[in-house]
Specification:
Length: 385
C-alpha cells in the first residue's frame, strides 16, 4: 500500500504526557472508494500546497489543548494516529461522483476550506448557523487533518480560490483570517475607538480589518513587543505592552492608559483575542459603558470575573465568536483580500508572512527543533508540501 509523510500525533506510540511536537511518520495514502465508503461520493482528494500552523496547533504541540477530543475521536475511529493541521490551500486531484453536482467543485480547482466540517442536519445547520453546528468535526483534531501531501476531505466546506486575486500562501490563511472577519462583523466599527487584546495572527488580522471597516483609533495590546511592532506596521494607532502577570484581575496600568487614550471614556469596542482570564477582565474593564466586547480567545477551565454585576450596570454587550459563518465570512474575506486598494493582502504578506522569508518551511526539512525555533521567531509559519 502507498504511503505518504504526515505530521501526526499517535496516542499509543507518542502518548500525551510523554511527547511534544508533531511527529513525522508514514501514513496510508488516502483514496476515494465509493463502494467501501458511500460518503466518498461527496469527498475529494486534495494535493496540499501550503498549510498554516495555528495557535491551536501550537497548543497541541505543547499538549495543552484538545486532549480529550483527540483521544475520544481516535477511539471511536478505532485507530491511534491523528493527522494534524487544519489551515490549507490545495488542488483537487480526485472528486467523488456527486461533488460537482452539489458543490460545483471539479478536479484541478484550487481550494481552501473551513476547518469545521459541519453536519448539515442539526437545527443550527438547517437555519444557516453552521458555525455553531451541534455535530461538527474539526480537521486535525476530531478528524484527520491536512499536514500531509494528500488529504481526503469532505467537499462541503471547500472554498474555490483564484491565485490571480489572492496569492496561494495567503489562501492558506483564509481560515484564521476568517476568524477576524467574523469577529469584526459582529459590531459596527465606523468612527469607533477599538482595543485589540492579543496580537497573534488573528489579532493582527483584526487590527487590519478594524482599520478598513472605519475604526478611528485602534489600540493593540500584547505581552510580546514583536507582536506590537507588527500591529503598528499593520495600522494600530497606539500599542500597549502588558507585563505578564499571574493575577486574574484587570491590569490597572492598562485601564489607566486606555483612559488617557480615550479622554477618560474607555474604548467603544474591545476584541478579546488572547484567552486568559485576566485578558477577559481587561476587556470588561476598558470598554466604555454601553460598549461592546467581542470574545474570541479560548482557554479551558473556570474563569473568575470580579464584580460581574459591573458588566450589567455598564450595559455592555458581549458576543462569543467561534469559527466563521459559512460562507458569508468567506465571501467577505475574499473581497477584503482581493481588493488591491486597501493594502490588506500586501500587509499580510509583508508584515505577517515576512514575504515568505524564513516563515515557509518545506515538509521535507521538518524537524522538531527547527519548528520550535521558527514558531518562536515568527507569529505565523506555513508548511510547504
Ligand atoms: Zn487555525
Ligand atoms: Zn450541524
Amino acid at each position: 500500500m502507498n504511503s505518504i509523510s504526515a505530521l501526526t500525533y499517535d496516542v499509543k506510540e507518542d502518548g500525551w504526557e510523554t511527547s511534544t511536537g508533531f511527529i513525522k511518520r508514514e501514513v496510508t495514502m488516502p483514496a476515494l472508494d465509493e463502494k467501501a465508503n458511500p460518503k466518498d461520493v461527496l469527498a475529494v482528494l486534495l494535493e496540499i500546497q501550503y498549510a498554516g500552523v495555528c495557535g491551536t496547533d501550537r497548543g497541541i504541540w505543547n499538549r495543552q489543548v484538545f486532549k480529550e477530543l483527540i483521544h475520544q475521536t481516535l477511539e471511536r475511529e478505532n485507530k491511534s494516529t491523528r493527522i494534524l493541521g487544519h489551515e490549507f490551500v490545495g488542488r483537487v486531484v480526485e472528486a467523488g461522483s456527486q461533488v460537482e453536482n452539489l458543490y460545483g467543485i471539479r478536479v484541478g480547482d484550487n481550494v481552501s476550506g473551513d476547518s469545521h466540517v459541519t453536519c448539515g442536519r442539526c437545527f443550527q445547520c438547517r437555519v444557516g448557523e453552521e458555525e455553531v453546528c451541534q455535530d461538527q468535526a474539526i480537521l486535525g483534531i476530531s478528524t484527520d487533518g491536512i499536514f500531509s501531501k494528500y488529504a481526503k476531505i469532505s467537499a462541503k466546506n471547500l472554498w474555490q480560490v483564484d491565485f490571480s486575486r489572492i496569492r496561494p500562501e495567503i489562501c492558506a490563511m483564509l481560515d484564521p483570517f476568517g476568524n477576524a472577519v467574523h469577529s469584526c462583523s459582529k459590531v459596527e466599527l465606523r468612527g469607533k475607538r477599538v482595543a485589540v487584546l492579543g496580537c497573534g495572527p488573528i489579532g493582527m488580522f483584526t487590527v487590519l480589518l478594524a482599520r478598513a471597516f472605519g475604526a478611528v483609533k485602534i489600540v493593540a495590546v500584547d505581552i510580546l513587543e514583536a507582536n506590537l511592532n507588527t500591529a503598528k506596521e499593520l495600522g494600530a494607532h497606539e500599542v500597549v505592552l502588558l507585563r505578564k502577570r499571574d493575577d486574574i484581575e484587570a491590569d490597572p496600568g492598562l485601564l489607566q492608559r486606555i483612559r488617557e487614550l480615550t479622554y477618560d471614556k474607555g474604548v467603544d469596542v474591545t476584541f478579546e483575542m488572547a484567552g486568559p482570564n485576566a485578558s477577559v477582565n481587561n476587556a470588561l474593564a476598558i470598554t466604555r459603558g454601553g460598549g461592546e466586547v467581542v470574545l474570541f480567545g479560548l482557554k479551558d477551565g473556570d474563569f473568575v470575573i470580579p464584580e460581574f454585576k459591573d458588566a450589567i450596570v455598564k450595559g455592555l454587550t458581549l458576543y462569543g465568536v467561534i469559527g466563521r459563518q459559512i460562507f458569508q465570512t468567506w465571501q467577505t474575506s475574499q473581497r477584503m483580500l482581493s481588493d488591491k486598494t486597501n493594502g490588506i493582502q500586501e500587509k499580510v504578506w509583508k508584515h505577517i508572512l515576512k514575504e515568505g522569508r524564513d516563515t515557509i518551511i518545506p515538509l521535507d526539512s521538518y524537524s522538531k527543533e527547527l519548528f520550535e525555533q521558527k514558531m518562536a521567531e515568527h507569529a505565523k509559519i506555513l508548511i510547504k508540501f
